[in-house]
Amino acid sequence: MKIDSHQHFWQYDPIRDAWITPAMQPIRRDFFPEDLQPLLENTGIDGTVAVQADQSEAETEFLLTLAEQHNFIKGVVGWVDLRSETLSERLDHFKAFPKLKGFRHIVQAEPDDLFLLRTEFMEGVRTLGEYGYTYDVLIYPKHLPVARELATRLPYNRFVVDHGAKPLIKQGELEKWTADIQSLGKRENVCCKVSGLVTEADWENWSLKQLRPYLDVIFESFGTSRTMFGSDWPVCLVASAYERWVEILNEYMKPFSETEKAQFWGVTATEFYNL
């Protein structure tokens, strides 16, 4: 089963979705399962994991409703207030939804670079693990050492880094990110999504040649048993059609064994999210 481990849906709201800037005009509209399904069929992708884009329980419920209506949505990564004193009660409520697999917080937007290690937040993440949920780590390169510390302190939690921690591809910055990704990759409880890289490159002028050094580092650091394909659709559309991203990764994966390809395209995500 081929899985897209990272895509979004939304009913566009210019105030709530202010992160979608005027420069991102192609995605300043609604995106629903009906828009994605033909792209999956064109590329042979069997199912997806829908990931929150807004930090509200309403967003989690929205994605769960779509998942109930569309079989190709195999899992949902939602949002819940991980610092809330009623977290356990909320997770008890969500256990009624089998397609809910994990949670995410938009840490990259937090002004505190050490946010991941705040006691109340870290305890919330620990509680997720106790309930069997995964945690998606959405960060910038500067947060990688902090993410490693989080994974070290919570060895029984399962983490996945979204978008390779958003390396500064357009600026050509590789050295520091490489060292930090390699260090994080030594934590066996951490996986990495090969997603969102085209939007960190030059939207108008990116290529596999430009992405290859970053892809090499991710695969060398995590191996195919801990890497998973993600499109970051529809955000990717500012830089690439869905089909082109799949095509580029198929080209990159040509030297890999059939077992490694199967892990990357579906097995890792299926096992990580228990799809």
Spatial arrangement of strands, main beta sheet? 1-2-3-4-5-6-7-8
Q: Could you say what the CATH topology is called?
A: TIM Barrel
Q: Biggest sheet, in brief?
A: 8 strands, parallel
The CATH architecture designation is: Alpha-Beta Barrel
Question: How confident is the prediction overall: mean pLDDT?
Answer: 97
Helix coverage percent = 25-40%
The total strand number stands at: 8
Organism: Siphonobacter curvatus
Family: Belongs to the metallo-dependent hydrolases superfamily.
GO molecular function: hydrolase activity
Pfam families: Amidohydro_2
Task: Explain how this protein is built.
It contains 9 helices and 8 strands. By secondary structure, the chain is α/β, with parallel strands linked by helices. Strands 1-2-3-4-5-6-7-8 form an 8-stranded parallel beta sheet. It has a single domain, classed as Metal-dependent hydrolases (TIM Barrel, Alpha-Beta Barrel), CATH 3.20.20. It starts with a strand and ends with a helix. The longest helix is centred in the last third of the chain and has 16 residues, at 258-273. α5 (144-153) runs parallel beside α6 (175-185) and α6 runs parallel beside α7.
